[in-house]
Design a protein that fits this description.
- The chain has one domain.
- It has 225 residues and is mainly α.
- The termini are far apart.
- The chain has 10 helices and 2 strands, in the order αααααααβαβαα.
- Helices cover 70% and strands 2% of the residues.
- α3 runs parallel beside α6 and α4 packs across α6.
- Strands 1-2 form a two-stranded antiparallel sheet.
Length: 225
């Protein structure tokens, strides 16, 4: 009976830790809206919902792989080679993702361009490896990677959807490059096709939209407090 109670308490504590990690990743420590990490690809590539979703998923997969490998090997890495090994792990993951995308999704690979390999330099990934995964168990590091990746991806796709709607008047444009020919009819044209607001599709538009998103989050936090 005592062992059962102890196990229940440990399970409750673990569940509470995981919930806190999700809340932090999605809101309180969101890497894009709070920590402002990875802004270069976030602002440059998020001109459409599809591009933003693809980059967010690629970043999340890289974060997941790096966190798990770093956590699993944390007792074996010497301090002198710790950071180079983190970079090697991240670079290997990104290279594998890029090669797979180039082979199976060439149009999407061309659309993301240089910003796909630049995931290697994303401060979010190496920061979580050093500050969190290197000190935690694999399950905890996995949840942290999923939570932070989901938070980053959520901001990306919101930014991409807003910019695409304002700039092109569409939603899910070019969905076929990610989901295949069956998605060629998924595009929703909400404003006539000759409509274009160029600034929304360029990096300055991303800064403006992200600024409004930051302001809205701050207002929500102030109201909640």
């Amino acid at each position: 009976m005592t062992h059962r109670v102890t196990n229940n308490l440990q399970a409750n504590d673990t569940g509470m830790v995981y919930r806190q990690l999700w809340i932090k990743g999605l809101w309180h420590q969101n890497p894009a809206l709070v920590k402002l990490l990875g802004l270069c690809p976030l602002l440059a590539v998020s001109n459409t919902f599809i591009n933003a979703l693809a980059l967010g998923v690629a970043t999340t997969i890289t974060l997941l792989v790096s966190n798990c490998v770093v956590s699993a090997s944390r007792h074996f890495l010497l301090p002198s080679v710790r950071l180079p090994m983190y970079v090697l792990i991240i670079a290997s993951s990104v290279t594998a993702i890029e090669l797979l995308m180039q082979a199976y999704l060439p149009a999407l690979h061309a659309s993301l361009g240089i910003f796909l390999p630049l995931i290697v330099t994303n401060c979010l990934i190496i920061g979580r490896a050093e500050a969190f995964a290197s000190r935690q168990t694999v399950p905890t590091a996995t949840i942290d990677a999923l939570a932070m990746g989901a938070g980053f991806t959520a901001v990306l796709i919101c930014l991409g959807a807003i910019r695409e709607l304002i700039g092109r008047g569409t939603f899910l444009g070019d969905a076929a490059v990610l989901f295949g020919p069956t998605a060629s009819h998924w595009t929703l044209t909400l404003i006539p096709q000759d409509y274009t607001v160029l600034i929304a599709l360029l990096p300055p538009g991303a800064f403006i939209v992200l600024g409004f998103m930051l302001a809205i989050k701050n207002l929500i936090d102030q109201h909640a407090s």
